[in-house]
Design brief:
The chain contains six helices and 24 strands. The protein is an alpha+beta fold. The chain folds into two domains: 101 residues, Immunoglobulins (Immunoglobulin-like, Sandwich); 246 residues, 4-Layer Sandwich (Purple Acid Phosphatase, chain A, domain 2), CATH 3.60.21.10. Strands 15-14-13-22-23-24 form a six-stranded mixed beta sheet, with no helix packed on it. A six-stranded mixed beta sheet has the order 16-17-18-19-21-20, with no helix packed on it. Strands 5-4-9-12 form a four-stranded antiparallel beta sheet, with no helix packed on it. A hairpin with a 6-residue loop joins strand 1 and strand 2. Helix 4 packs parallel to helix 6. The protein is globular. The protein starts with a helix and ends with a strand.
Length: 383
């Protein structure tokens, strides 16, 4: 009996090894678009095996397709299963078609490289930003806390295909302990409904700072200058994206000496002071701030007090048209007086989404529940 068992093991092992080696290369997540501008976009995706990532920009015949690969320090990006490909040199306001096109990397050694399968994914389209656009339509969701079903309910009911941008305004994750918490409920759900053709902006909330993977979050996304705070124009709107940091003091015992958010926020504040002096900010028809935690007086959490005391005066002096926040899990509209900023603030609950449209005449806001019931409708006039 013992000899028979040994024979079965020896026979089965080679079969298992062969099965492992012939598993075809496949795209396991994505693609999802990031950091779309007037002249570029980043395409992100994952594969089931190490690969050389590429994106094929497809064109109508007789124009040839073009393969885009990135290089770093003279070396073509190669290896790993998480991929980002930046495409540059595009024209403003133009629609492009693309396919992800990875090549399996079986072996990468000095003087010896073995390639495997080449995969061409499905074809998708995207349109670059244009300064000539007079209208923009965007969606804001926040405080999903890793609930992919809730996110799907909002996306399927929001005319997502007609949006120019989707904002995830913080606490999309509850914690970040493993990549499946991001890739499954957030990335895969987004790809299913829009993210291969319409980009999303992932604004960090206080919950995204928690967990062993929190320091790797940027690997799955793409930010201008690799910072969580930045600004950009989309149609008539100038968006200012702020990073709130954690809600507790840096010396809170649950951070175990690993928090440095107050200093980080002060560095960000110096950037904001310069940002509000920019021509893009001053000349925009609408100036919209997005930050996970509200910037308002009267709150007891350290992070919100810090924002109100330090960022509040700068924002109030610079002015704006709207501030969008979340965090409190309650819907609240504060007019230009109650906000303390001189312009309105909309705090979105964890159960609702914001559907917005900016034109040359006004910025219209519609707050809609997960059950697709209208919670409120507001309109911000042009200055």
């Amino acid at each position: 009996m013992k000899k028979l068992s040994t024979l079965v093991i020896y026979i089965c092992f080679p079969l298992f090894a062969v099965a492992q080696s012939v598993t075809p290369l496949s795209i396991t997540h994505g693609p999802w678009l990031q950091n779309l501008t007037a002249d570029g976009v980043t395409v992100c995706f994952t594969t089931n095996a190490p690969a050389v990532p590429g994106v094929l920009l497809t064109q109508r015949k007789p124009l040839p397709d073009s393969l885009v690969r990135n290089s770093t320090d003279g070396m073509i990006d190669a290896g790993g299963i998480l991929h980002r490909v930046r495409i540059t040199g595009l024209e403003p306001g133009k629609t492009y078609s693309y396919k992800v096109c990875p090549v399996e990397l079986l072996k990468l050694r000095p003087y010896q490289v073995y390639y495997g399968d080449t995969v061409r994914g499905k074809e998708f389209n995207f349109t670059t930003h244009s300064s000539l656009s007079k209208t923009t339509r965007f969606l804001v969701v926040n405080d999903i806390h890793t609930n992919g079903g809730k996110l799907a309910n909002h996306l399927r009911s929001s005319e997502i295909g007609s949006r120019d941008m989707v904002f995830f305004n913080g606490d999309m994750l509850d914690v970040f302990e493993n990549e499946n918490q991001l890739l499954g409920p957030i990335i895969d759900t987004s790809v299913r409904y829009f993210a291969s053709s319409v980009p999303f902006v992932f604004i960090r909330g206080n919950h995204e700072t928690r967990g062993i993977m929190s320091r790797s979050l940027k690997n799955y996304l793409d930010y201008p200058d690799n910072k969580y705070y930045y600004s950009f124009d989309l149609g008539p709107v100038h968006f200012i994206i702020l990073d709130c940091g954690e809600d507790k003091p840096d010396n809170n015992r649950y951070y175990y000496g690993l928090a440095d958010y107050d200093r980080y926020r002060l560095v960000q504040l110096e950037w904001l002071k310069k940002e509000v002096q920019s021509e893009a900010f001053k000349n925009a028809a609408y100036r919209v701030y997005l930050v996970h935690m509200p910037v308002k007086q009267g709150d007891s959490a350290h992070g919100m007090i810090f924002l109100a005391d330090n960022f509040g005066p700068v924002i109030k002096k610079a002015g704006g048209d709207l501030l969008l926040a979340g965090h409190t899990h309650r819907h609240l509209w504060l007019d230009s007086t109650l906000s303390g900023l001189g312009f309105p603030m909309l705090i979105n609950s964890n159960m609702d989404r914001i559907e917005a449209e900016a034109t040359g005449q006004s910025l219209k806001l519609r707050v809609v529940s997960e059950k697709n019931e209208v919670v409120s409708e507001r309109e911000v006039g042009r200055r």
